[in-house]
Design goal:
Layout lengths: L4 E10 L2 E10 L5 E5 L6 H8 L7 E6 L2 E2 L5 H7 E4 L11 H6 L14 H13 L15 H14 L4 E5 L7 H18 L2 E5 L3 H7 L2 E6 L2 E6 L1 H4 L2 H8 L3 E5 L6 E5 L3 H9 L2
Parallel strand pairs: 3-8, 3-9, 6-7, 7-8
Antiparallel strand pairs: 1-2, 1-4, 4-5, 9-10, 11-12
């Protein structure tokens, strides 16, 4: 049976600033859940709280019936694969060295580096398209290549649950689609539970089984994309007028922002 991540009465913040307030959420197991919302609404903070990167002010995060705070760091690392925004690696580290860090939760005095560890690292490099760059130093790569290396490290943890904060950052459109297709395939073929923050609403609708729409530190709406991504919801959460149409390729909701042609024309005329 797949493990389930949830939170009850969760409040999170930084210093004297409260971000998430008394939040309850259950992440669907074996599904792709995407957090969406305007800048500063708390979606990344919520993801970090679910990953135990931020200590709750109140409430708890649970893996099944166990509080994450009662698990050791090594136990958490075996259960949750995490990719944060703007991760930093030691200088001079190669791609393969970075990806190998994903296997460290499985190492001990009794269990050293094994053929299985090597195989999982190779697979992570292969499926992220980084196998030919394995010996390159991270600092010599483009932003998009570095991002794929970090994703490979998270995959090498071989966890049932993946938490990814804006994983498409620094990637061009082709590599964004490639990465999201990869995560979709991992979910379909291996049943991975994937939770990620995305800014692109249309990508969120296309790849998500479940959307969490966050507004001012609370979950404003949740459910399947067709239920959540409505013109009224976009207006309320993003202060944006739009039309919701069907994606012509996959049939999911697609957000088309409204614009005033007269204003656009004036703007272009002034150039």
């Amino acid at each position: 049976m797949k493990k389930q991540l949830s939170a009850k009465n969760l409040s999170l913040g930084y210093d004297n600033v409260s971000i998430i307030n008394d939040l309850h959420v259950t992440i669907p197991s074996g599904k792709i859940t995407v957090l969406v919302g305007s800048n500063g609404c708390g979606k990344s903070t919520l993801l970090r709280g679910l990953a135990r990167l931020i200590k709750p002010r109140t409430g708890k995060v649970y893996l099944d019936s166990k509080s994450l705070n009662k698990l050791s760091a090594q136990e958490v690392a075996k259960e949750l694969g995490i990719l944060t925004q703007g991760p930093v690696a030691p200088e001079g580290l190669t791609v393969k060295d970075l990806v190998a860090f994903g296997r460290y939760p499985y190492q001990s005095w009794l269990q050293q580096w094994s053929k299985e560890d090597e195989q999982i690292v190779e697979e992570a490099l292969e499926i992220t398209g980084m196998i030919n760059l394995a010996d390159r130093v991270l600092d010599t790569l483009s932003g998009g290549q570095r991002q794929r290396a970090w994703v490979a490290m998270a995959l090498a943890q071989d966890t049932e649950i993946l938490l990814l904060d804006e994983p498409t950052t620094f990637l061009d459109l082709a590599h964004q689609v490639e990465l999201l297709d990869l995560l979709y395939e991992l979910n379909c073929t291996k049943g991975r539970t994937i939770v990620m923050v995305l800014h692109d609403l249309n990508q969120a609708c296309r790849y998500a089984d479940y959307l969490l729409m966050v507004r001012e530190g609370r979950i404003f709406a949740q459910g399947e994309p067709a239920e959540v991504m409505t013109e009224e919801m976009v207006r309320e959460v993003f202060n944006l007028e739009c039309r919701i149409v069907r994606d012509p390729l996959v049939g999911t909701p697609m957000c088309v922002p409204s614009c005033h042609k007269s204003k656009l024309h004036l703007s272009k005329s002034s150039l």
